[in-house]
Amino acid sequence: MSARFRFSTALAVSSMLAIAATLVPAAAQSPQSGDVVKKGEYLARAGDCVACHTAPEGKLFAGGRSMPTPFGTLYTSNITPDAETGIGKWSADDFYRTMHSGRFPDGGLLYPAMPFASYTKVTRDDSDAIFAYLKTIAPVRQTNRPHDLQFPYNNRSLILGWRTLFFNEGEFKPDPKQSDEWNRGAYLVEGLGHCGMCHTPINALGGSRESEAFQGGLIPMQDWYAPSLTSNKEAGLGDWSIEEISDLLQKGISTRGAVYGPMAEVVYNSLQYMTDEDTRAMAVYLKSIAQDEPSPPKPSVRTEEASLLISLGKTVYDKHCASCHGAEGEGKPPHYPPLAGNQSIQMESAVNGIRMVLNGGYPPATAKNPMPHGMPPFAVTLSDDEVAAVASYIRTAWGNRGTPVSAAEANKLRSAPLQ
């Protein structure tokens, strides 16, 4: 299953297409079991299992993908039905216990990079369907690689303390005051989608609290900022239409913006395969949790320096950016996002905006947007002062309410990992 520490590079298309190719022949399944397997495949995609359990150039779900964390490097496990190195000897009960309780069949504790704190909300029926699907894929004999964790984090018994602080076991309970559509969206966002793993701030112990759910935070080891889904100043979607939110989730682009970085991988691997009904349900739920705007952030750059940066920034913008994004930041949606009024530009953290100027990027190629338009990198073309200047200009021009950024911030992100 997917985890907190995502990578921003999308997996190869061939890995995704291999899912369909590895199912057992239809003749070997009863109609009922075939329906369950099909449901399980869909739910495995909703859970984005492939993102972590398939290594680059690796076999489907054979694990072995490295996941750098502040505590050392974890390596994902083999979840193919190989009897010796995978989950071939597991029962449906074993699989549910792992998903629901964060424990191996022998009672051993899983590291919380596997998002069992979210997957605990998955129903038993859905867990059984995912397990039925995994049992049909090609078994791969590949021994799990030992984790490389620093002392004392290599002592699994410490996870007991983490669980006490941050793990609340229990299936999702529908809210009777809400519609069926809202509850379906909440189930997908809070459970299989495990959106809170990135969009909830993580503390020094690698945990997050329900009271801070979806309030945003920097993704450790990746230098990408997962914006708050509750604040309308960041990625809160209170003033977006349901269609705009659904488009962003399923296509990777909408008239209001586009996804890049780790979120582009989520859309590529997972959300583009969701049904229109499910992406709409997620949109209904996400729109409902948006709250009032917080107090404006305080500038981190001195007024004099900020004025010089913004003046230079307009020159850089007019030369390199206006041809696509418009002289007034109006963009050419959906392929060239508007920058005026764009919430992702105005967030308290300027990390994502600076990284886009430095590294460029593409939204994911999806079934409903197969040939996305991209943005070129300017890391070689622009100096740190110019990167900071254009980022500051974009964050403050056209009525945008962001704050200026410094050349030091731009320089620091030049060394951010690209994968």
Per-chain topology:
Blueprint lengths: L12 H9 L9 H16 L2 H5 L12 E4 L2 E4 L16 H10 L14 H4 L4 H11 L13 E2 L9 H8 L13 H13 L3 H4 L17 E3 L4 E3 L15 H10 L1 E2 L2 E2 L2 H9 L6 H13 L14 H18 L1 H4 L17 H4 L4 H9 L24 H13 L10 H6 L7
Antiparallel strand pairs: 1-2, 2-3, 4-5, 6-7
Helix pairs in contact: 2-6, 4-6, 8-12, 10-12, 13-17, 16-17
What are its keywords?
two-stranded antiparallel ribbon; 18 helices; mainly alpha; 419 residues
Describe, in short, the structure shown.
By secondary structure, the chain is mainly α. It contains 18 helices and 7 strands. It has helices at residues 13-21, 31-46, 49-53, 92-101, 116-119, 124-134, 159-166, 180-192, 196-199, 242-251, 261-269, 276-288, 303-320, 322-325, 343-346, 351-359, 384-396, 407-412; strands at residues 66-69, 72-75, 148-149, 217-219, 224-226, 253-254, 257-258.
